[in-house]
Fold each of these.
Amino acid sequence: MNKIPIIEIFGPTIQGEGMVAGQKTMFVRTAGCDYSCNWCDSAFTWNHYMQSEIKQMTAIEIYNELKNIGGDCFSHVTITGGNPALLKDLEYFVDLLKENEIKISLETQGSKWQGWMLKIDEITLSPKPPSSGMKLDLDKFDMIINNLSKNNVSIKIVIFNDIDFDFSIEIYRRYKGIPFYLQTGNEYINETNNLILTQKLVEKYTWLIDKAINNEEMKDIKILPQIHTLVWGNKRGV
Amino acid sequence: MNKIPIIEIFGPTIQGEGMVAGQKTMFVRTAGCDYSCNWCDSAFTWNHYMQSEIKQMTAIEIYNELKNIGGDCFSHVTITGGNPALLKDLEYFVDLLKENEIKISLETQGSKWQGWMLKIDEITLSPKPPSSGMKLDLDKFDMIINNLSKNNVSIKIVIFNDIDFDFSIEIYRRYKGIPFYLQTGNEYINETNNLILTQKLVEKYTWLIDKAINNEEMKDIKILPQIHTLVWGNKRGV
């Protein structure tokens, strides 16, 4: 069976972001990304220092590891990265979860298409704003949104500054009707004092709320913090 | 036109709880409640000290006030209390919002039924756990859940202690398939230092997450904090 590059498997815990915020879930984080965002909080999925941490695993091995650590405590799995949409062979794993009646969420930036995305229960597409240093391919993003028009899909944009916010207005306008989430970015990924981190994140979140609630164009939106960072700080694997 | 007792109207802001967490919304808070929960964070809606704050308003007056303070910045209104489901005449207001293409959320404990609840876009029923000192009428709750079976309804339970958690398991079991939210209670409604409050709330939230993620029965649930309390503390009107 084909192998999938995995950087971490953990849970059960809660999903801290977007349309499934608060959901009790297991996480499967794939290695590799076609992006390298300036502020990536999971750079260990793509920077070369972490190559030795990557495990090549079959779908069954991943599933067994989930059962091994999650036992009988879960019915939901989140696939995130990196960019899982780089991996055609994730289809085997997606099918295996479906066979076992496990709900699946996917997190991806919307730069790549895979047929298995149609089988996902909850899809978060997170186009990266200008502060990432990445450039969104709008034609490709249009195609992906169209392909998923009958699925449970949402758009989530992480906001670091005013320019990112302006970008989010353009995306909101272009994809009106798709559930739309704004989220504060975490600029403080090296902050180890959780109390200071929480204070800074709450301040940033308040800034984003103020901008969004006073905007006349973006009416039907949700504005969320990264809940897990408020709770666990910059710790990995929670 | 019949008048509705209103204790506050504010926004735009974000919804801090449950199925619509993060939603940009206006709030309309009705006065009066059939409950008097020990830890109620909106006791000003029902305790007699606040009688003088209640305004009797027609549907049109409420709508005009929303436009007056929210301008053209909103397309979503949350009706909360107190218990709005005490008020038959809210139907006029609900119809007026619908005519103006405004989405409506309702927050109620599930102790009273009103026909206009069928017109609400997102309904949160929050049966009160034992720590509230209230007793849930399960037959009535069954009836309300049945009436709303084709609507976008969720159950949210606020948890203060182990006994509340056990109660939430019973409710989860009884209404399987209904989107289910656990939320930490705020025991610190007199805490004015926001930093201390945030710390305490995060600790409590971590406690609830730990209990919930290790429970084998409650698999498909969302566990959320009161986001607005993390941001604004115990301040009213935000």
Amino acid sequence: MPVQRPSIPKGTRDFLPFEMVRRNFIFETIRGIFQLYGYQPIETPAMEHLSSLMGKYGEEGDKLLFKILNSGDFLDSSTPLPTSVSSKELALKISEKGLRYDLTVPLARFVVQHQNDLVFPFKRYQIQPVWRADRPQKGRYREFFQCDVDAIGSDSLLYEAELIRIVDDIFCKLGIKVLIRLNNRKILAGIAESLGDASKLTDLTIALDKTDKIGSEKVNEELSQKGFSEEAIGRLQPLLQLEGKISHKFDILTEFLKDSITGLKGLEEMNQVRERLKSLDLTNKFDFDLRLARGLNYYTGTIIEVKALDAEMGSICGGGRYDNLTGIFGLPGVSGVGISFGADRIYDVMNELDLFPQTITTTTKALFVNFGEKEERYCNSLLKALRAEGLAAEMYPDQAKMKKQMDYANRKNIPWVVLIGENEMKTGKLTIKDMLTGEQNEMTIQEFTGILKK
Amino acid sequence: MPVQRPSIPKGTRDFLPFEMVRRNFIFETIRGIFQLYGYQPIETPAMEHLSSLMGKYGEEGDKLLFKILNSGDFLDSSTPLPTSVSSKELALKISEKGLRYDLTVPLARFVVQHQNDLVFPFKRYQIQPVWRADRPQKGRYREFFQCDVDAIGSDSLLYEAELIRIVDDIFCKLGIKVLIRLNNRKILAGIAESLGDASKLTDLTIALDKTDKIGSEKVNEELSQKGFSEEAIGRLQPLLQLEGKISHKFDILTEFLKDSITGLKGLEEMNQVRERLKSLDLTNKFDFDLRLARGLNYYTGTIIEVKALDAEMGSICGGGRYDNLTGIFGLPGVSGVGISFGADRIYDVMNELDLFPQTITTTTKALFVNFGEKEERYCNSLLKALRAEGLAAEMYPDQAKMKKQMDYANRKNIPWVVLIGENEMKTGKLTIKDMLTGEQNEMTIQEFTGILKK
């Protein structure tokens, strides 16, 4: 066979041990806190029926789905392909499965499919990779991990507060200072309604979202192009740059939304969430930010987005409430709320800010130098004793030169080297070399175990 | 949008919380022991270039690869498709990526690609799903997890012994009694050589493997059909049913292989592995079994296969030594040895034998009954106190009827329910209901924490 230069598909990554321990630190922290709040793990297959995925993420999303070629002889030889078939038509003909694009649609499918086996409210978390055929760029990958946590089957705002508390806990534990931005889709809908055209909600939110970047003048031009009247745009101005205390924002909005039942409902929800959060004693700040819109259209209530304060990075966590996610799979009227942590971006932020603890490592605590067969046999019981105490230890595989064996310990950052030769086998003691100081000491296996356990 | 009846692709599975905790118990046990022996985690992408995968698993394997449709407008419209294109030809034209089929070929690719960043011998483990377009049947899935552990870059037989010790440790910890079968590819090659035709190694191993199922007479017929001479078949007979002590097998084989350098080398390796294992004091039995062949052709030395003694199940773990796995990716002469644990089969065996500890659960320890807003606010600090001690606790999301809230606790197997009403808020004590006995007691949060920690 010809020799191949090894590489992986663009936008995908290998993870080396030093990256794995850091990633696992993030996953374990997130998982641990999810569980403290009573969320339970599920997993779904990497592949879903394309029919479950298509049409759920907009036209652009459909294009970004990785499609899997049907197995076997997927072309029906009795009906040959039309010569002018397009890629899109052909794809639908020869592909029935796709890789999951997020964890939300699979969750909706899962809840409907297993509804009789679940206890509602169903509190689940799910940590798995997702795949998108996006153009790869810095911080954007074609395979990346999402850590989702959702409560399904209750419209209690307690869950909004609980999830925000989880956000606070997780970022405290990871050491990332964040700002938690909150908004409510009903408020945005109410604003569109009050401006005279509820159908223009999307145009409105897109424009609001740009205020920071392009300024209110350009935003007004855009609104005008989208067909908002001069009068409507005029009335909108106080909302565009709504700053200051939350209570101030509430006052202005209560007046603005006084004729919109939806808008006032949203404001009431926001108020309740805020009241709950006040009694929760969060470490990180939260803010009510009218410009927060979030892209996906399935949100119907509270929306949440989290940004790291000390790093240049987009949102590292976000989510919200959706009232009819399971409807498309035949189970209407089930309300849920959830958030998703972007593990890859969190990783980048922690790396940039040097937040990973020095202590996390999967390296062994001790390398036993290999002096030959007899010594190797003698060391077996010592290795066994250490491992029985939960202490990782290994023996160099052959009687190589001392320099080579020490080099192995050094390059792997193994902190202790154990030397067992003729003398040690006689005395029953271990000669231990501290790889940091270079110091050597004789001790018993019990003494060494004690040191390693510290 | 039309309502869809939810389902997942055949051969794939959802995992519910009760399954997840059991699966995680297996993964954590395996991972923990891998780490005790100095193996470090890596991960590779779900997708590899098809060119990295094709031709590595035989013709049948190529067919079982899940291929991913190229993104975007994958048909080159300037060169229309020939009308008589076959599925195979078309697939190669419109698909450049495939889902990984195992963790061994990705490991080889990884080692070559990252050789300058790795410390050799490179001891790695990898726990990830793999995908095969196999016909689904009981115990065979299209997505399943492999737990691989390999030592790369050393030909020391210490690693064979270490891996077998890992097998022994893991199955002890999981509570599965196993038989560890060993053989050596060089011995099989030596036998083929001694019979006069080294090229017939594959035919020979296939036939040997069938002795148990079809009996030696039928095996002899098959060997004859494959072109083995009567004389060769006659000489082979004592080997077909080689039973008894390992030392007896060695005696017979030493005589049989006396003219085959390869065969004697294999016997010497097997002897060294056996000597090492004798000093390791394993709990499970190991046996030298000449009929063990293992399908994949990349093995060149020791081969290992593990079966559960008390369950009807194929091999639950297997592996061996390969001398040139990385050669195809441009790095010849690197020897490695590894084994793979089949998590899905191990799960099935543990379920069948009822081996999962009763204690593994991700359910919360305590449900706080929701009596209303005031009580909810009061309970926040209690929930916080429990979680700060690492104790999972949750509050019911709204002031539902007591029966409904108790039902939730019961169905989720939550062992304790906390009742905080007017009275408790006055006294500062908690009323705790033991859901197993139905007993109710008043106590402080410290006392309750003490109970939960037991």
